[in-house]
Design a protein that fits this description.
By secondary structure, the chain is an alpha/beta fold. 39% of the residues lie in helices and 18% in strands. It has helices spanning 16-32, 79-98, 115-127, 139-151, 177-190, 204-219, 238-247, 260-272, 291-294, 309-323, 331-348, 355-358, and strands at 61-62, 67-73, 104-110, 132-134, 156-158, 170-172, 195-201, 223-230, 253-255, 281-283, 303-306, 364-366, 369-373, 379-381, 384-389, 392-397.
Amino acid sequence: MSCFPRALAPAWPRRGWRGALVAGLATFLSACSGSLPGLDVFNSNPPPKPAPAANQAPQSAIGNGQIKVGLLLPLSAPGNAGLAGQSMRNAAELALAEFNNPNIQLLVKDDAGTAQGAQQAAQEALDQGAEIILGPLFAHSVTQAAQVARARNIPVIAFSTDSNVAGRGVYLLSFLPESDVDRIVDYAISQGRRSFVAMVPDNAYGAVVEAEFKQVVSRKGGRVVALERYPAQGGNMGDAAKLIAQAATHADVLFLPDAGDGAISAVQALSAAGLNLKRLQVIGTGLWDDPRIFAEPTLAGGWYPAPDSAGFRAFATRYRARFNQDPVRTATLAYDAVALVAALVKTQGPRRFAPDTLTNASGFAGIDGVFRFRADGTNQRGLAVLRVTSSGGQVVSPAPHTFGSGT
């Protein structure tokens, strides 16, 4: 399949580069295409799994173009991190091939999933002439790579889900919990819901989600009636559930931002505390895109945000055809990063990686939908809202294809 974006080639005399670039990227990325693609969330030590056998070392460079691009991945890290690193490297190679081998060369560097490894990998890539760094995957690695890149005024597009590592010149292409919260609360309020209760896990993810939840509910004119934290990873939820069950008589939405087992335990504790879940609209985050959630009857009808899955399915088909294996969910991040860089190199000349280019307000279209970088390094994504059913997530509000003015 040839995915060269012909719409990128002509000059744009009237619309200017911003609108035309978005249209061109949409032509390429959407034609080549759509959960939570992130190991981070915020744990840089994923549970170990056997690493795949490696018969040969991966290439240290992909492509032979003049524009050098560093790609930092945890290729030799143990367990899931190493699996993700190799799959993301494959996805980067696929993006380069589907863009008809543009004028870039990917300098692939193994950061081993460590901060020291990322610092060394970034230094090597910059010494070899990299004009931009893609990666790393984990928050602690991003911090060290960014320190090296900033010293040379080189931008970084990283894959961590921890917005604390974003900043000047360091942009996150991951799915951020804040985006999930913004989308699902906005949708709930658009459906006439105004009063919220929430049970939140007492961990790093829960802290980020709680802060954003309070802000967006207030900003949208809603009200947080009550919010309780509970111990993560199997702690006692009984006390928190009793308080929420009492407060829920004054609310119409229950927010449960936890993964499968945690969310299921929370609704069971609430039911035991006497809460009639049928009178509330239950909402969650992208962590709900999970077969365990779909199999839980008490969560049926709940809403959660996620990217449109059509793009990922198409991507996975092409990935399997090329590499004879399934991609990890994070692989789309590497694909979109390389595709974006290739398009900017082709169209933007010396301004290709300038801050105003990367923070184009109209955004870009990727496998997982539209996205744009904010000046503070975080991102905004166009997400769908899905309803929990026994057969999976059912779209109730499609993901936007563009960012409207003022959004």
